[in-house]
Structures are given as structure tokens and as C-alpha cells.
Amino acid sequence: MTAQCLAENDKGHLTISGCDTVELAGIYGTPLYVMSEDEIRRVCRSYVDSFQKYYNCKGKPLYASKAFCCMEIVRIVLSEGLDVEVVSGGELYTALKAGAPGERIHFQGNNKTDAELQMALDHGVGDIVVDNPAELERLNAFAKAAGKVAKISLRITPGIEAHTHEFIRTGQLDSKFGTDLQSGAAMALVDRALELENVALTGLHCHIGSQILETEPFVHAAQVMLVFYKEITVRHPGFTLSSLNLGGGFGIRYTQQDRALPYDDYMQAVSAAVFERCAALELPVPDIYIEPGRSVVGEAGITLYTVGNIKEIPGVRSYVSVDGGMFENPRYALYLSEYTALIANKADKGKNFTATIAGKCCESGDLIGEHMPLQQPAPGDILAVLSTGAYNYSMASNYNRNPRPACVMVSNGTHRLVIRRETYEDLIRCDI
Ligand SMILES: Cc1ncc(COP(=O)(O)O)c(C=O)c1O
User: Fold this and answer.
1) For the whole prediction, is pTM greater than 0.85?
2) Bridge partners (DSSP) listed for residue 320
3) Does 2.40.37.10 match the CATH number of domain 6-30+300-427?
4) SS3 for 105?
5) Residue 211 alpha carbon, nearest atom of ligand 1
6) pLDDT digit string (tens) for 132-190?
7) Out of 57, 362, 407, 430, which one is annotated catalytic?
């Protein structure tokens, strides 16, 4: 098993937070996203505690809501003391509707529209992370028209190559995100931000990538950003930064091969580096923000499917088709992401079968995984795919006009619906 919330009961069924997954599939139908509230809270607390242990409570973790954005998860993370990071008007709307106060929202994005910037200003978003010079000018103009001063930080591209899939690597020079440090563009952005009257520069931000399984790139990013901070203070004497946001990207376990670190290892390493660098550079110690998404919800989630057709191609492979697919989990199609799967109603049996798990969409690449060890499958079995809490629901679509699945939150043996299953009526609600 990957997550701590998973176990097996005396019927030989997979359980999550004390709930029998086969019963959940019977009650709510499949495909079904199941999220463990206990696990989400446990991870949130480990991040919050790591700030107490290693960083004198200066700064805080934010939840990168792109990983799984729905009102109930926003409510849970807020109640654990995390702020919320959003990257679109839709995520901002969800956070506000879930009760997030504007000052606890951090708004990212490499191409925020005029309407999104206006919305952020209207709702008093506490930290608008400006991505580039053109956005800075637009935001300043909107804030001026509204008679406001927007609190901003600047998204910097620190030039760091993290060891992860190229599509989820973001800190290197050739990136659509942020303003580049090495060319001098980042300093020019700081200069301009300090000139403008309707923005107040409070922080710097960087994010180097996702599913990173080592502390070293984060330490490196912190060091690079603090050297930049020093250069800013030399150029603009008297200027102090209140925050340094080092982004998210902490890796999780999808398979036994993933060596995920305890999450507070990251803060331990980063805190030590920040204290050391600030002392060496004679800088006031800034608040640190980190913004994990995947690690808050990833291992807390599983997806349940009903097995349909099983097709054996002798000498080639065995396809096990399920009632989901790339419309509710596009990550294999996008990145060849690996998962662990098991037959939930045969969790106590050995895995003696190798499956290609296929979805029901009209694409040959619509797979959940290949070469996956499984118990002997049969039509009607309940298949569980583990560690699907992040970037599954949030990346889901209605491809082939498949309704998006429901999501159930489980906690300590109880379960409740937090996202209802879409209906066919939902599918045509915008059609004219
Ligand atoms: C700016 C920013 N912050 C935070 C995250 C969250 O990363 P992760 O889900 O890997 O923790 C992302 C993900 O792409 C991001 O782009």
C-alpha cells in the first residue's frame, strides 16, 4: 500500500480511513474518487508543525488548489491553518465560495486575464503573484482605477533544473512561467514594481517543478533567491521583503519505487539554508511560504472502478477495461505516469496477473497504466488505483461526453459525498 489511510479488512477488502471500498462502490457507484480527510489533515499538520519546529513559525504553507480544487478540500486546508493558492478565476471563485478570506488567497498564473486581475482586486486578494512586466503594468493600471494598492510578489525563474518530468519542470530558463533572473529581467521587474504607486511589493516567488523527491533543489532555489534579495537591497537600500515563496513540488509515492521523503525534511533543509544564507548575507530573515499541492492530497485519494471487458491477446498483453479512463485521469496519457493498482474485493490475494488497464475513451492511448501487477481480475470486480488524489479530478474532462465521477470524503469509518456525480443533463447544460 502507499498511503497510511489504506488497509485490508477481515473480508479481504481494501479499506480507506476505515471504510470498505467495495461498500463505497456499491453505495456511490463507479468510477468514484475517494479522498481521506484524515490523511489530508495529517499532511497539513506535518507541514504546519515543520514551520514550528524548524522556522520559528515564520511563514506558512499554502495549499496549491490546482491539485484538487473543490469547496470541501479548501475548507479542510483552511481549518488546518493553510492559505490557498489559486491560478484562475475559477479556482479563486471556489476558494471564496468555500469561505477563504481574500487576504488568505495567493493568486498565481502566467497569463491572468484582465477580468481575473480585476476579480482579485475586487475581493482583496492578499498576494497577487505577478508573472511578468506586462502583467505588472496591467495590474497597476487596474489598481489605480480602483483607487487601491495591490499587494504583490514577483514570480522569478531562478534557472534551476529539477530532476522531474520535463512537462512539470518550471524553474529553468526556458519556461513559460515567471521572469528570468540571469538576464537581468527580474531585476528590471523589481525596479519597475518599486516605481509604481498602486502595487506594493512584499515578496518574491519561485517554483521549480513538481514530483521532486530530493531536498537539494529546494535548498538551491532558496540560496539563489536570497542572493537575488541581497542584490535588491544593495540596489534599493532600505527595501525589505516580507516573504519568500519557494513553491511546491514535494514528491509522493505512486509506486514502491518512489522514495518519498517525510514532508518536514524539506522545511528542515530549507530553513537551515535560509537562516545560514541570511546570516551570511546580513539580510533580515523573511517569512517563508511553501505551496504544496500534490503532497497534500495525492496519497489521500484513490479511484474505484468496475472491471468490464478483459481481453487477452496471447503473447502480447491482457487489457483490463474499466468504466473510467483519460476523462477522469489523463495523467498516463499526458506523462506516462505510473500508479499502483489492486482488485479491492481481492486485496488479500496475491498478484499473479499483469494488466494493461484501459479506459473507455476512443483513444488507444487511453490507459491508466501498463505492466501493472494485479490479482486475477474478473468482470464486475472493483479495481482501486492508488495515489490519485492530485491532478486527477482537477484535470478531468467530459471527453466522449463522459460525466465526471462523484467524490466521497472518508474519515474514521464515515463517508460523505462532497462532489456529486455529473448527469447527462449536466453535459448539455451549456448547449444552445
Ligand atoms: C506555482 C506553483 N505552485 C505550486 C504548485 C504545486 O506543485 P505540487 O502539486 O507539485 O506540490 C505548482 C504546480 O505546478 C505551481 O505551478
Assistant:
1) yes
2) 310, 357
3) yes
4) strand
5) 10
6) 999 999 999 999 999 999 999 999 999 886 665 554 555 567 789 999 999 999 999 99
7) 362
